[in-house]
Amino acid sequence: SNMLGFPAGFRIGHQDFSLGKGTFFRHASPGDDGIKLFFDPTKQLHGEIFLVKLIEGVTTANDDTDFYGASLAYKGTNFNVGGDYGYWVSATNGVNSRGAIVTNLAAGDHGTQVNNLGLRADTTIGKVLKVSAEVNLQSGKTDYESNPIKHKGRYYSVNARYALTPATAFTVGYIYGSGDDNSADNENNVYLSTRSAGEGALDATIVYGATNNVATGIKGTSLGSNTVSGSLGVSHKLTKDVGIGATYFILRSAELDSSAA
Predict the structure, then answer these.
(1) Are 52 and 86 in contact (CB under 8 A)?
(2) Which tops the pLDDT comparison, 188 or 85?
(3) Comparing C-alpha atoms, which of 64, 66, 63, 1 is closest to residue 37?
(4) Which of 36, 102, 217, 252 could form a disulfide with 50 if both were Cys (CB 3.0 to 4.6 A apart)?
(5) Residue range 248-253: average pLDDT?
C-alpha cells in the first residue's frame, strides 16, 4: 500500500529470509516463521526489517532462538550500495572458543548473542569492468557461567570481471573468513553465519557449497569460517547458447586451530 506516502507492506508466516547477500543469514527453502516489513521510499531505495523465529521451545520458558534483521539497499545508474544489521540470539545454544555451535547449554549458562554489520557495493565501469566488494564485522558473546566467550568474526570479499571482448571475459576473486588460532582463550574469532534451520550452521565452504568439514577441521561451524580463497577464471562464449570456461581456486585456512595442531 501507499499509506506512508510510498510503497510499503508486510508479510507474516512461513517464508524465505535473507539478510543482504545472505553471507551471514540466509534461510531459504524451506524457510522459517517470521514477520517481514518492506518499503521503497524511492525507486532506487529498498528496505526490509524482519523478525524470524528459528527455534520455539516451551512457550512458557525463555528457551527460544530468534533472529532480527534490517537492510537498506540503493540502486544507482551504474552502481549499487547497501548495508545491513543482523542480531542472532539464543537462550539455549552457544558457540565455543573454536567457533563450533554448542546445543543445550547448561542451566547456569545464559545463551548467545551475535551482532553482524554488513556493508557491500558493486559498480560497472565502462560496460567492461564489474567490481563488487563486501565486508562483515561481528561482535557478541556466549555467556557461559564459568567462562564467557567473546565473538569477533570478520569476513571480506572482492570480485571483479573484465570483458576483454563481448565473448571473452576474465574473473578474479578474493574471500577471507576469519578463524581462531587459540582454542584455550575466552575469544572466538571464527566468522559465524546462520544458513540453515535450528541452531544455524552449515558445514560448507564459501567456495564449493558442498557439505564438508570447513577449514576449522570440525563440523558445526559456518559458511566462510576460517577460509581464505583466491580465484582466477576465464570464459568464452562460442555461440549465443554455448560457452566454455575454467576457474582456478586457491583455498586454505586462515588460522591453524591450536587444539588440532
Answers:
(1) no
(2) 85
(3) 1
(4) 36
(5) 83
